[in-house]
Amino acid sequence: MQIFSDFSRCDSQAIYGNILPMKGALTLLLCLVPTLSLLAMTSSCGNRPEPSPQSPPALLAGCQGCHADLLDPSHAMPCTACHGGDSKATAKDMAHHGLLPRPAHPDTMGQVCIPCHAETVAKVAASLHFTLKKKINLVRHAFGAQEELTGLTAVPLVAGNSEPLALVDDLLRRRCLRCHPYAPGDDYPETRHGTGCAACHLNFTAGKLSSHALMRLPDDRQCLHCHYGNRVGGDYYGRFEQDFNAEYRTPFRTDDQHPRPYGVEFHQLAPDLHYSAGLACIDCHPGSQLMGNGVGPGCATCHNLVQARAASLANLAVRDNRIFITAKLSGREMESPLATDPAHARHGATTDCLVCHAQWSFQDQATHLLRQESTDYTPWEYLTVQGSSAVENLLTKGLANNNVTPVMADGITGAMRPGIWLKGYGQRRWEYPLVGKDAHGRLRIFRPLLDLDLSHVDEEGEVIADDVRSTAAGHGLRPYTPHTVGRAGLFFLQRLTPNLPPAAPLKP
């Protein structure tokens, strides 16, 4: 029996090891019998009927049958209260009938969020953070607009028009308005976000929703999904976005495998002192400002005893003539230094704090924007990195195949329209701040926010509009608040004299 057992394993060493001592017919018989038995077994197995396929297991009734790991423990209500659908169905199509995949989107947050958050929704819908009213009107007025729009949805939809204001409106809808509550952001690892209320309160990581639990207090990562690049927010972390041209970007590698979490590589500069101390964005920008039109605390709120005592901030305390602030995310309490240097009393009434305390500022000059409707992508070979995933994907395909039609989606409605908006800079610089006087005569830091030139090339390659320049005076320089705070240097007094460049003559 041991011999037969060894044969059935089809192990050549076992076979020959057992039969070599045997002779003649016995040897042949011992070889053949197990083989015939195995053949019979194989034949018998082959004639067995195939097992019938099992029906897929029925889904559990309710959303938890498929989405058990996506429930929000802070909202003790059925999933259907926000998302709609049928929680009793056991088939996907039936369960998703009437589903709202993005209930916090501006188009639906009224019906979904108002029953529990009526006051908050009303404030958010009218807030500057939500409507982008200030930004939109600032740009439109620089190109001749007279009226004041109520928000981004009021930007006119004008197709194919090359008049300056029409170009601006198309630019706003299709190139600029990608970081607003109506759109989920660009397709880069750290620029995807929710829509509406979820833009700040749902956590996205590596381009995907990482948790369905709504965050009461957004962390900085949420803020940076929109406030990246060379604008306020990215500078808080000491980041300066590099130029688009491949010859000026780093690291200098021969492949495209290095990560670009925010679309374009960045230089790492000195971060803001408050970031280094452990303060998050929401420590200086409370909900009353972000979700309404309230005013956040100023520098003196935390660095001047009189103003600190008058402030009604829950995380600010004054004890023994000392000011303490508690970080909202970490709960760590830290002492805020008092502004006791005599320079504050001497210059504080006429000079913004950042004039002396900003370590560096953005100075991207001559921003060129071209709406192209032709299929000639060759001039953009070195500018395929555009800070817009839609434009980058189209350029990459167009350079490989000139028959690719340039189309780009509307950032508000999602509708596709002919033409893409390409971008480039005369220069991208981080420099010591430019200082000038604002409309109230106060010294402020300036940057060329409205130094814009628009062009339009039609589908035949004809230049319809060429370098249409904004009417903003002085290179489009505007006062702003850089988030690059540090200690005032030894030569801070030199910053108290305006050093803005002379205004350039406007093009006809």
Structural summary, described in words:
The chain is α+β, with helices and mostly antiparallel strands and 508 residues long. It folds into 4 domains: 2-35, no CATH class; 101-268, no CATH class; 273-357, no CATH class; 361-496, no CATH class. It contains 20 helices and 18 strands. The protein has helices at 2-7, 12-19, 24-46, 64-67, 80-83, 92-95, 109-126, 128-131, 133-141, 164-176, 198-201, 220-224, 273-277, 281-284, 287-290, 299-303, 305-310, 342-347, 354-357, 389-400, and strands at 203-205, 208-211, 239-241, 266-268, 316-319, 322-326, 333-336, 361-362, 365-372, 407-409, 416-418, 420-427, 430-431, 434-437, 443-447, 452-457, 463-469, 478-480. The strands form 7 sheets. The protein has a 4-stranded mixed sheet. A 3-stranded antiparallel sheet has the order 5-6-7. Strands 14-15-18 form a 3-stranded antiparallel sheet, with no helix packed on it. Strand 10 (407-409) and strand 11 form a beta hairpin. Residues 1-49 have low confidence and may be disordered.
Which tags fit this structure?
about 30% helix; about 500 residues; globular; 4 domains; 18 strands; 4-stranded mixed beta sheet; alpha+beta; disordered N terminus; 3-stranded antiparallel beta sheet
Layout of secondary structure:
Elements: H1 2-7, H2 12-19, H3 24-46, H4 64-67, H5 80-83, H6 92-95, H7 109-126, H8 128-131, H9 133-141, H10 164-176, H11 198-201, E1 203-205, E2 208-211, H12 220-224, E3 239-241, E4 266-268, H13 273-277, H14 281-284, H15 287-290, H16 299-303, H17 305-310, E5 316-319, E6 322-326, E7 333-336, H18 342-347, H19 354-357, E8 361-362, E9 365-372, H20 389-400, E10 407-409, E11 416-418, E12 420-427, E13 430-431, E14 434-437, E15 443-447, E16 452-457, E17 463-469, E18 478-480
Parallel strand pairs: 9-16
Antiparallel strand pairs: 1-2, 3-4, 5-6, 6-7, 8-13, 9-12, 10-11, 14-15, 15-18, 16-17
